[in-house]
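Deliverable D4.2, example record:
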Amino acid sequence: MNTVCASCLATNRLPDDRINDAAKCGPCGEPLLDGSVIFATGATLDKLLQDDLPIVIDFWAPWCGPCVGFAPVFDAVAGERRDKVRFIKINTEAEPALSSRFGIRSIPTIMLFKQGQKVDSLHGAMPKAPFEEWLDEGLSLQDTTS
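Output generated by the structure prediction step:
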């Protein structure tokens, strides 16, 4: 499996049987799959989308109450699924070009990607259990289409 380092954007090859071994980036030494949410920008997103793991992106803004309320749910699920899915946040206020590129009309908007292609999207904040159900369904959909 190839995974992209959130710190230096280097692509790292990880054997499938070593995903749970606290892998570190070869060039920079930072942890690769530690469950941390990655804050992406226009300069980093395309490289991050090249990861072999599915990607979930939360388009949000710091002034958005539902976005702020959903953040702990997003963070918790990111930590729990650290070796299966990458979780990215994009601040729509700081990255208007990305908002336009992905057609963001309301926030929070959550999108699921596999191999750089959008699989599904969700509009609005929700509690953890429904979010996990949506994610599981989206991951099942992408498994049958890949």
